[in-house]
Amino acid sequence: MFGKKTQPPIGTLIGEGTVIRGELQFAEGLRIDGEIIGDVLAAGDQPSIVVISEKARVTGKVKAGHVIINGSIVGPVHSDELLELQPKASIVGDVRYEVLEMHQGARIDGELKPLKSEERPALKLATPSHG
C-alpha cells in the first residue's frame, strides 16, 4: 500500500510575495510559496500533487491526490491519496484523506475523517527528524 508511485512533475510555482485571489485549478504538480485566497483544486482525475510550503498561506479549499502541507490553510483539505502534514503545518478546517502522515508539531483545528470511514484508516507513522 505504501509502495513508491511516480509523482507528477511540479510545473507551477506560486512564488513568495505573490497573492492570488480566486479559484486556482492546476494539472499535475503545484508548489505554493505565496498566498492564495480562494480554492486550490487539482483538475481532472489525473495524478496530482500540491506542496504548500512553510511560508505559504491558503484561505479556501485544497483538493488534490497527494497533498504536502508545511504552511497555513484556513479551509477544508481533501486528499485522494496521501496527506503529509509537516511539522509547521496548520489547518483550520475539516480534513478528508486516504492515507495520513502527520509529523510532530503539525496542528489541525477541525474534523479528521478518512475517505473510507467505514474502514479503519491507514496511518503512516512519521519517523522523528534528527537535527
Provide a descriptive summary of the structure in words.
The chain contains no helices and 16 strands. By secondary structure, it is mainly beta. The chain has a domain at 21-104. The strands form two sheets. Strands 1, 3, 4, 6, 7, 9, 11, 13, 15 and 16 form a ten-stranded parallel beta sheet that branches.
Give the secondary structure arrangement, pairings included.
Blueprint: E1 10-14, E2 19-21, E3 24-26, E4 29-32, E5 35-37, E6 40-42, E7 49-52, E8 57-59, E9 62-69, E10 72-74, E11 77-85, E12 90-92, E13 95-102, E14 107-109, E15 112-114, E16 122-125
Parallel strand pairs: 1-4, 2-5, 3-6, 4-7, 5-8, 6-9, 7-9, 8-10, 9-11, 10-12, 11-13, 12-14, 13-15, 13-16
Which series of helices and strands comes N to C? EEEEEEEEEEEEEEEE
Number of helices: 0
Task: Tell me the total number of β-strands.
Answer: 16
Helix content: under 10%
Regions with little confidence, pLDDT below 50 for 5+ residues: none
Radius of gyration: 14 Å
The assigned structural class equals mainly beta
On the 0 to 100 scale, the average pLDDT is: 90
Shape: globular
**Could you tell me the strand content as a percent range?**
over 45%
Largest sheet: 10 strands, parallel
| End-to-end CA span | 29 Å
